[in-house]
Design a protein that fits this description.
The protein is an alpha+beta fold. Helix content is about 25%, strand content about 25%. The chain has 3 domains: about 60 residues, Roll (Structural Genomics Hypothetical 15.5 Kd Protein In mrcA-pckA Intergenic Region, Chain A); about 90 residues, Pseudouridine synthase (2-Layer Sandwich); about 120 residues, Pseudouridine synthase, CATH 3.30.2350.10. The strands form 3 sheets. Strands 5, 6, 7, 8, 9, 12, 13, 14 and 15 form a 9-stranded mixed sheet that branches. Strands 1-4-2-3 form a 4-stranded antiparallel sheet.
Length: about 325
């Protein structure tokens, strides 16, 4: 079996669950759309036979997925500055700045992280994510900053994605939340799904949502805001933002999930925060080729540092 072929055995029957959905959950860094395309093109076998996306996996079935060589991307390289924390011939880790979209959503964004990576890596990026997402193993929101790992070839991509699947990747965020969180630590387990009417929003949906698990520790309390260290055990869209809204403490600056609380915070403190205060501070995993443990930290960006300083000063005035 070559590096582009992955096999797995179904543990238990999953009536009503489509094969493309099952594979998306088994390889969470690969989209369901990518798996549907692979199935439609005949690259997925169930017990040795070409499968359909609508097939429901049954206990004991062996599923074989072949990731074909990458198709040439249509995207043009763009020379954008990159803050590279680590790089070798297999992968790189970058400190993504605020305001930079990771990959094009519809091919319309003129300059994303992917465009910058195509220039920096001279096109040497894994193709598993498809032509719109070369090299992208995981994502963080446009207005979230911090550590992001990128794969230069498919073997590295699969090696890192398997660690995300097994939940052995350690991802620690720093977040500033509205209000004073009473407990020193917390465990949030609330299933998440897309909003029925607003597809760009995510809601807690215990009946149809996907498992989502977040833990946190309070680092500083500033009366009207709290600095927390947050660990995500799953990687759902907007997970930290929605989970903190769920416990009544939306992130400072996050007007999508906490417009009212942010209005009160600004009125009470005078601190102007233009985006959600969320920063991917720490990323730890094992090298997908050599196996050695890797650990990376990204310093706070200027706006996060300024917000923390101003909120701290207002909580502890001098004179």
């Amino acid at each position: 079996m070559d590096a582009r072929t992955q096999k797995l055995v179904v543990d238990c029957s999953l009536p009503g669950v489509r094969l493309d959905t099952f594979l998306r959950d088994s390889f969470p860094v690969v989209s369901r759309g990518t798996f549907k395309r692979l199935i439609d093109e005949g690259h997925v076998l169930v017990d040795g036979r070409v499968a359909k996306a609508t097939h429901s996996p049954q206990a004991g079935e062996e599923i074989e997925v072949h990731f074909p060589p990458a198709k040439p991307t249509r995207l043009e390289p763009v020379d954008l500055p990159l803050d590279v924390l680590f790089e070798d011939e297999h992968l790189l880790v970058v400190n993504k700045p605020v305001g930079l979209v990771v990959h094009p959503a519809s091919g319309e964004e003129p300059a994303t992280l992917v465009h910058a990576l195509l220039h920096h890596c001279r096109g040497q990026l894994s193709g598993i994510g498809g032509v719109e997402r070369p090299g992208i193993v995981h994502r963080i929101d446009r207005d979230t900053s911090g550590c992001l790992v990128v794969a230069k070839h498919d073997q590295a991509h699969l090696g890192i994605s398997s660690q995300f699947k097994e939940r052995t990747v350690n991802k620690i965020y720093h977040a500033i939340a509205c209000g004073e969180i009473a407990h020193l630590s917390g465990d949030i387990r609330a299933r998440l799904g897309r909003h029925a009417n607003h597809r760009m929003s995510v809601v807690v949906d215990e009946s149809r949502g996907r498992e989502a698990w977040t833990t946190f520790q309070v680092r500083e309390r500033w009366g009207l805001a709290t600095l927390a260290e947050v660990k995500i055990h799953t990687g759902r869209t907007h997970q930290i933002r929605v989970h903190f809204q769920h416990i009544g403490h939306p992130l400072a600056g996050d007007t999508l999930y906490g417009k009212r609380q942010n209005g009160r915070l600004r009125q009470a403190t005078g601190v102007i925060i233009e985006r959600q205060m969320l920063h991917a501070h720490l990323l730890e995993f094992h090298h997908p080729i050599h196996g050695q443990p890797l650990s990376f930290r990204a310093p706070w960006p200027d706006d996060f540092e300024a917000a923390a300083r101003q909120l701290r000063d207002r909580a502890n005035p001098v004179g």
